């Protein structure tokens, strides 16, 4: 059988490709697929990765089928109606993020609160000078997971509308990498829903972050860069 492998962030760098097609024996598992890829890139065996099969997180012992789409997930950091009428929306953008248009989209005259969270590039991390960040995303899977996050948030909190926008590509110092905007009749559910959504984005979405160091403040005194983050919450290492 054949499976397709989507490659992101540090996995892409190790395998040298955005996508691969791999031949496997019938009954092969996710763990078997990783072992095959480690023959091509031995350093992959030392990399912490989770796994998704057909855009849902999967365990290492998951049995694969012909035509499956598999992605090894390294550590992570809609509709036709008019934008303002949508209960929620998730966007990935290569352009700078602007909060004001999203705030106008979510607010209705029944709302007494609009809460906006912006995650902004800072100039340091772990005692090192950072000159910027860059992000990469498994966009199709991220969009599917965000629908689940929004739906769970609606069950938990009495809010009206929500928007999440995340940058991909380089994000210079001081610019927002992510925006979460929530409207609600009252401030408590607006704050609570905003935090819940942001925490889930941070913990679960396959969005990958690379830090670019200032000259002389990277590994071994150089500049350079590194991928940073943790595996998705609750997902086993493959």
Main β-sheet, in a few words? 5 strands, mixed
The amount of beta strand, in percent, is 25-35%
> Which range best describes the helical content: under 10%, 10-25%, 25-40%, 40-55%, 55-70% or over 70%?
25-40%
Report the count of strand segments.
14
Which structural class matches the secondary elements? alpha+beta
Rg over alpha carbons = 19 Å
Shape: globular
Amino- and carboxy-terminal Cα gap: 21 Å
Low-confidence stretches: none
Question: Strands of the biggest beta sheet: in what spatial order?
Answer: 2-1-5-3-4
Number of DSSP helical runs:
5
Written as H for each helix and E for each strand, in order along the chain, the element string is EHEHEEEEHEEEHEEEHEE
Q: What is the residue-averaged pLDDT?
A: 91
Task: Walk me through the structure.
The protein is an alpha+beta fold and 238 residues long. It has helices at residues 9-15, 30-40, 99-106, 139-156, 187-204; strands at 2-6, 19-23, 50-53, 56-57, 69-73, 88-93, 113-120, 124-125, 128-137, 161-167, 169-172, 176-184, 207-213, 225-228. The chain has a five-stranded mixed β-sheet with strand order 2-1-5-3-4, with helices on one face. Strands 8, 9, 11, 13 and 14 form a five-stranded antiparallel β-sheet that branches. Strands 6-10-12-7 form a four-stranded mixed β-sheet, sandwiched between helices. Helix 4 packs antiparallel against helix 5. The longest helix is centred in the middle third of the chain and has 18 residues, at 139-156. The two termini are 21 Å apart.
């Amino acid at each position: 059988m054949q499976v397709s492998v989507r490659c992101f962030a540090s996995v892409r760098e190790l395998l040298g490709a955005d996508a691969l097609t791999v031949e496997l024996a019938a009954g092969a598992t996710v763990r078997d697929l990783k072992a095959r890829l480690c023959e091509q890139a031995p350093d992959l065996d030392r990399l912490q990765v989770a796994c998704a099969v057909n855009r849902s997180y999967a365990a290492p012992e998951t049995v694969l089928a012909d035509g499956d789409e598999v992605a090894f997930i390294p550590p992570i950091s809609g509709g036709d109606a008019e934008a303002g009428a949508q209960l929620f929306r998730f966007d990935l953008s290569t352009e700078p993020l602007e909060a004001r248009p999203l705030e106008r989209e979510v607010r209705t005259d029944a709302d007494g609160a609009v809460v906006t969270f912006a995650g902004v590039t800072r100039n340091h991390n772990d005692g090192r000078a950072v000159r910027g960040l860059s992000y990469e995303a498994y966009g199709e899977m991220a969009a599917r997971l965000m629908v689940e996050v929004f739906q769970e948030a609606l069950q938990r909190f009495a809010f009206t509308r929500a928007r999440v926008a995340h940058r991909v590509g380089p994000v210079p110092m001081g610019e927002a990498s992510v925006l979460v905007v929530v409207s609600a009749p009252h401030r408590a559910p607006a704050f609570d829903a905003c935090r819940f959504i942001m925490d889930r984005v941070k913990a679960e979405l396959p969005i990958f972050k690379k830090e670019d160091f200032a000259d002389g403040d990277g590994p071994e005194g150089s500049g350079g860069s590194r991928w940073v983050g943790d595996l998705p919450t609750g997902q086993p290492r493959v």
